[in-house]
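Exercise 3.2. Students should predict the tertiary structure of the chain below and write it as structure tokens, then compare their answer with the key that follows.

Predict this chain's 3D structure.
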Amino acid sequence: MSLTPLMNDTKWEELRLAMYRIEPLPPAWRTRCVENGYVSPWDREWFYHFRDGGYGSIEWVEIKPDSAEHLPGLKTDNGFRILGYATPGDTI
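Answer key:
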């Protein structure tokens, strides 16, 4: 399957830092690996865990906010999903 990258390290880093700065508790997140489809468990640690291993394998990150504040991305049942890659025909 052909995938088109939508994010780069700079954009992922900007997202990570913005989520890390949310007080009093950053929102929970989980990622899906573009290489094998693995979905990580929910985590709230944005400083080290989110960037561990780099950003190149993140197909998407799903963010579960604790408040009604809007985040950029696709609305899901759990919160918002920010795409790192898209497949042909995806509506973004």
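Discussion points: The beta strands are 4-5, 28-33, 58-64, 74-75, 80-83, 85-86. Residues 4-86 form one domain.
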